[in-house]
Structures are given as C-alpha cells and as structure tokens.
Known about the structure:
Elements: E1 2-8, H1 11-14, H2 19-27, E2 45-48, H3 57-76, H4 85-89, E3 95-101, H5 137-151, E4 156-162, E5 165-169, E6 184-189, E7 200-205, E8 214-217, H6 221-228, E9 233-245, H7 246-257, H8 285-289, H9 302-305, E10 309-313, E11 317-321, H10 325-339
Parallel strand pairs: 1-2, 1-3, 3-4, 6-10
Antiparallel strand pairs: 4-9, 5-11, 6-9, 7-8, 7-9
Helix pairs in contact: 2-5
Keywords: Kinase, Nucleotide-binding, Transferase
GO molecular function, one term: fucokinase activity
Pfam families: Fucose_pyrophosphorylase (PF07959)
Amino acid sequence: xxxxxxxxxxxxxxxxxxxxxxxxxxxxxxxxxxxxxxxxxxxxxxxxxxxxxxxxxxxxxxxxxxxxxxxxxxxxxxxxxxxxxxxxxxxxxxxxxxxxxxxxxxxxxxxxxxxxxxxxxxxxxxxxxxxxxxxxxxxxxxxxxxxxxxxxxxxxxxxxxxxxxxxxxxxxxxxxxxxxxxxxxxxxxxxxxxxxxxxxxxxxxxxxxxxxxxxxxxxxxxxxxxxxxxxxxxxxxxxxxxxxxxxxxxxxxxxxxxxxxxxxxxxxxxxxxxxxxxxxxxxxxxxxxxxxxxxxxxxxxxxxxxxxxxxxxxxxxxxxxxxxxxxxxxxxxxxxxxxxxxxxxxxxxxxxxxxxxxx
Length: 359
C-alpha cells in the first residue's frame, strides 16, 4: 500500500526547511536525497498551511491542502503525466491518503503554536523497553492511520484526522470489511458524558448500529439525554477520524470549489497555497458536511444525502484531546496510566532503561 501523508501545519513550520525531516522522523517515513538547502526529500509527504487572512473551515482547509498538493505535483510532473484535479483526487486501489490537520493558532495552548500540536512531545512509556524520548503525538497515531488505510475496502482510501487528538486503542482495530458499500466512515468511542458537549456526537438506531442516523456538533447533555431517552438510539463520541471514498471527496471538493472542480487545468496558474487558495467558500467538515450525513440528517443537502455514512466503534480505546494546557496535562497523565502498569519486580527482570532496544 502506497500511503501519502498530507499535513496542514502552522505557517512558521510549513515554511521551515526542516519540517519534512521532523514529520518524517515522527511518522517513521522513509527519507530521500538531501535538498540544496540541507532539507530532505520525503516521498509521498506534503506540508501545507492555510492561506493568509482567509478562514476556510476544516472542510475548506482539507480541499485547500489537497489542491496545494496537486499543484505541487503537477508543477514537477512531465507533460504526459499531467491531469485534472478531479482525476488526481481519484486514487488507485494500491494508493492511500492520510490528511492530518495540525495547523491552527493554538491560542489555548500557546507553547506549541509554532510547531503545531502533532509534534507535541509525549513522555516515554514507563516500564517498556524500546520507548523513545523523541516520542510525539503524531508518532503514536501514524501506525493506526496506516493500519486503517491498509485494511479498509478498496474505495475507502482517504483518511482525515485531527492533529490534536490521541486515540489510544489497546485492542485490535475492528474489521472494516462490512463497510464495502459506505462512502463515509466515522470512528467513535464510548466516552464520559462531560466530554460530549465539546465535540461531535454520532447517533445510530439500535436496529442498525453500523449506519449513521445523524450527527450533532457539540450538543448539550440535556439534548443527548432527550434523544436517547426512548431507547431507539445509541451514541458515540466522534474522535475526529473519518474515512472518505473518492465519491465523498469529490462531493466535499465541489462544495468548496464549485464549477472550478471540472476544469481541465485546475492548477490556478501554479499559485502559492501559502498565500492564496482556489477554495471559494469557507466550509466546515463536521458542522456542515457532517450535519448533512445520515438517514435522518438535521441538514438537508441532496448531494451529501446520496452518500452512505457508517459508524465504526473503537472498543477498548480512549479519546485524549490536547486542546488546552489543562487537557495537555490530564491527557499525558491518562496516557501514562493506560500504558504503564507497574511491573512485578518479583516475577520479572527490572526495567533497564528507556532507550534499551526491544529483544
């Protein structure tokens, strides 16, 4: 499986020559030849950022990042290999794409505003051989991203994830084979009630637990209780990881680009994605696109209504959000508790160093 990684980063990091090396190290990506300015070429990795002075929303930011990557590839492609943006969006069965939104201004976590939360350092696992001092939030998530893309049905090859979230899954990931007909997969977990008003909530009918009935963005606890009171619905916390089919990606792109998506040459003259964008309309992936998904979506949109949306429950998993200083501390402590059960000194060899290699 050839998986491409697209990162939306803070502008300072996206324009830094060594950004690709930092991301490659965190994601265990293979390095290419050194560039002229000391940087490295990392195959199938693209770094971008939102344009200056324009808010795009998470949906618009996704399309902007895809388009910026497309423009960059077309700039270096030979003439026979050039293609339209719409054709480029459609992936081959052996290709995959992971989009990580790790930009933002980090007003509530200013210490990591420059590098972005994806490169936020995490404590090494206690009592584990081979744990690295260089561990980051991104390095804990990349193996799961790869497994999801590799095991998904052939038409589900685009994964969108939030760079400020750690989903700590202890057990095996659920099989994605039952979702061969789905266009959108939303991953969710069972979570404490106090977390729900700050995130998206996925509702499913009990007789169809795999099909999304509707999604609400940041509902109150009273609203959640009211909707499940009759016993007909259950709910999961949306962890911010979605898998989209080529058809769903095309619908999202059309929402942001309009008729420009059908242009044979959609490179925009090779415009610099750091300073301008082809996206015409700000569009939110979760509150606008998501609210129109499902059998009983609260928002009516004929194009999105034609997409089949499903829900995948991640069992034995915990949702850790690194949004504020308080959440940074509590999430790091929770991750340590889950990873680091105290060893039995009487029955096993003592811990012999953080950087000791695994045997």
